[in-house]
Structures are given as C-alpha cells and as structure tokens.
Amino acid sequence: MDTLSTTLSALADPTRRAILARLATGEASVSQLAEPFDMSLVAVSKHLKVLEKAGLISKGREAQWRPCRLETKPLRQVDDWLESYRQFWNDNLDRLEDYAALLQKGGKNDPSN
Questions:
Q1: Is 64 strand, coil or helix?
Q2: pLDDT at 4
Q3: Angle ∠(92,86,16) on CA atoms, nearest 5
Q4: Does domain 3-71 have CATH number 1.10.10.10?
Q5: Residue 113 pLDDT greater than 70, yes or no
Q6: Element (H, E) at 87
Q7: What pLDDT band is residue 40 in, cutting at 50, 70 and 90?
Q8: Residue 69: in which H helix or E strand, if any?
C-alpha cells in the first residue's frame, strides 16, 4: 500500500483522529492517551501501532516513560493531495458566486426573464 493510502486508512478511524488531536497539544503517554476512551490499554496500543505504521506518531524513550508525539510529514502529504481538490471547489464556488450575482442583476441567463 502506498504512503498516502496508509495515512488515509489510519485517519479513517475516529479514535485515531482523536488521539492525533490530543497529540497536537503535546507529547503524551499511552495511559494518558487512553484516559478519554472506554477501552483497554491494549486496544489503545493497537490504534497507536496503526498510527505509528502510518508515520503519524513516533514513540520516544525517557527512562520508564515512552511518550508519543505527533509526526506531521504524512499530514502534509494529505494536505498536498487535497490541495488540487480545494482548488477545484474554490473555482466552482467562484463560478457559482458569479452566476448568482448575474441572476441578482437580472442577467440574460436569468430563467425568470
């Protein structure tokens, strides 16, 4: 599977997205990440493995503590991929805005004329 597909697959799960949102505020341990969820540490660890495989998080090592941290490179790749679609929608919305303005002025394409 390519990198983008792996990243999107990891992001498809709401629990994993919530974990990433938490890590966006700073490093956290597995137990800290597990706190808001009604699931076992083993289940949270499985989610973390998916995120780590996708390159979205990394785990450090500080004595007994293994902090997880957010890695942004895969998210930048998703953003780059989405940029062409963002441009597509912006262009379409601009055309729709122009058409609405034409209709308000009673333009020749106004079906009520």
A1: coil
A2: 94
A3: 140
A4: yes
A5: no
A6: helix 73-104
A7: very high
A8: strand 68-70
Distance of CA 98 to the CA centre of its chain: 31
Amino acid at 50: V
**How, if at all, do strands 57-59 and 68-70 pair?**
antiparallel
Give the pair of three-digit tokens for residue 56: 């979205």
Closest listed residue to residue 68, CA positions, set 106, 107, 34, 113 = 34
- Structure pTM? 0.76
Domain boundaries, the chain: 3-71
CA neighbor of 58 nearest in space, from 45, 42, 71? 71
User: Rounded mean pLDDT of 36-48?
Assistant: 94
Average pLDDT, the chain: 90
The whole-number pLDDT of residue 90 equals 84
Tokens of 100: 């609405």
Max CA-CA distance within the chain?
77
User: Following DSSP, what letter does each residue of 13-72 receive, concatenated?
Assistant: SHHHHHHHHHHTT--B-HHHHHTTSSS-HHHHHHHHHHHHHTTSEEE--BTTB--EEE--
